[in-house]
Amino acid sequence: MKILIVDDFSTMRRIIKNLLRDLGFTNTQEADDGQTALPMLKSGDFDFLVTDWNMPGMTGIELLKQVRADEKLSSLPVLMVTAEAKRDQIIEAAQAGVNGYVVKPFTAQALKEKIEKIFERVG
Amino acid sequence: MESNKTDHNANLFVEELRDCAKMLVDKLQSSDYETASELITTLTQKRDNHIYQSVGRLTRGLHNAIVNFNVEGDLTSDPASIEKSEIKDASDRLNYVISLTEQAADKTMDKVEASAPIAMGLGQESRSLREEWHRLKRREMTPDEFRQLYYRMDDFLDQMGTGADQLNQNLQEIILEQGYQDLTGQVLKKVIGLISDVESELVNLVRIAGQVEEITGLIDDADNFIDANATPEKKVVGEGEGPQVNADKRDDVVSNQDDVDDLLSSLGF
Fold first, then answer.
1. B242 with A83: Cβ contact below 8 A
2. Which of A86, B146, B155, B212 suits B102 as a labelling partner, its CA being 20 to 30 A distant?
3. Is A54 within the bounds of a domain?
4. What pairs with residue A78 in β-bridges?
5. Which residue of chain B comes nearest to A86, CA vs CA?
């Protein structure tokens, strides 16, 4: 299971990386915005994408839309972990095809639940 | 105070104008063109004086507002330098908050990452020793194996002591590291104070400018001036807002993960 973590704050990437490691996912890579993440996703065989929303360069929602529009990546499971908490934004993410949405600050339990749920559904 | 004085002056000016105008009509009707001509000169002078006074007030208000804006840098140099101003200071403070919180998070995680292998090592050794111990209790051990266990037990107790001390120390340091909350909180409060000051000075400035524009006839209503500046918040589609500070006071914002889950499940998720 190869996972890409996208967040502009290195601290948050590290926290997510640590939480994922606790859940048994040790093969993770990091990117600091959508622009860096997209080529990594296109060239690497990632199984799962965890992304923030608000980032310079390319935002997480734009990254999600680009992923869904890409023939090869369209079915990649995407979990959004973000401080963006407006209803409109959550609906926008859902409509863009997000698989899970976690608001910051979050608990290890919340992250675990969402990830397990996504894999259950994706199968 | 300043505002009352300004209003008072403006009212006085309007009254003088009215009086002059009445007298002018009277003089014109009684064909006293010489006095009428003098009155017109007086009118112009009064208007000019009023404008001069208003411009003076604006200049003074502008000066005060700029001083209170805490931009005390060298504004005469080109380009203007605000290296020493409080605004620049505020940006520095905010950058300080970012670096301090980052450091605290990094140090905390360093400590956790250093502690995890200690705890894991002690756990593994204790499980392995317990198995040996059970073998000893079941009398399955040769005297040679017992001698080995004897030394291992001695080592383990040593490891346990130093390991526990190390873990304790790391935990203490993690707790200490949370002191950043206090430090950044104080810095943020100062910046918030500065922002409120600047905001009220800005409102003051807009009010003064509006009054002068009204008096000089550039715009007929001071309120329009303020309204024209109060354009609704522009929002770029897809752009984030960052953490919600007052999520519980806004209807268009969720306040926790349960709300997110409810919203998503209502959309068929």
1. yes
2. A86
3. yes
4. A49
5. B253
- Find the closest chain A residue to B107 by CA distance: A11
Look at residue A37 in the predicted model and tell me its pLDDT: 97
The mean predicted confidence, pLDDT, of chain A is 91
Assess whether B94 and B61 both reside in one domain: no
- Residue B242, sorted as left (phi over 0), alpha (psi -120 to 50) or beta, turns out to be left
Give the structural domain span for B57: 2-68+197-243
What letters, b where the CB count within 10 A reaches 16 and e where it falls short, cover B184-199? beebeeebeebeeebe
Cβ contact A6:A55 at 8 Å: yes
Range of the domain at A86: 3-111
Answer yes or no: is B266 within a domain. Answer: no
> Confidence class of residue A88 from pLDDT cuts 50, 70 and 90?
very high
Pick the range with the lowest mean pLDDT from A30-44, A65-79, B17-31, B66-80: B66-80
Mean pLDDT of A80-104: 93
Residue B248 with chain A: CB contacts under 8 Å: none
Q: Could you say which residues from 29 to 88 on chain A have a Cβ atom under 8 Å away from some Cβ of chain B? A: 53-55, 59-62, 82-88
Among chain B residues, the shortest Cα distance to A99 is held by B269
Q: What are the backbone angles phi and psi of residue A91, rounded to the nearest 5°?
A: -65, -40
Name the domain count of chain B: 2
* A76 within some domain: yes
Is there a domain that residue B221 lies in?
yes
| Residues of B within an 8 Å Cβ radius of A | 101-102, 105-106, 109, 112-113, 238-244, 247, 252-257, 260, 263-264, 267, 269
Classified as helix, coil or strand, A101 is strand
Distance from C-alpha of B1 to C-alpha of A71, rounded to nearest angstrom: 68
Question: What is the count of structural domains for chain A?
Answer: 1
Nearest to A86 among B109, B241, B267 (CB): B241
Which residue in the set A53, A85, A90 is minimally distant from B247, CB to CB?
A85
Residue in B241, B243, B263 closest to A87 by CB: B263
What CATH number is associated with residue B92? 1.10.287.500
Say whether the ipTM exceeds 0.90: no
Amino acid at the residue B136: L
- Which pLDDT band holds residue B96 (cuts at 50, 70, 90)? confident
Over range A4-20, report the average pLDDT: 87
**Residue B250 belongs to some domain of the structure:** no
- List the structure tokens of B175: 């707790």
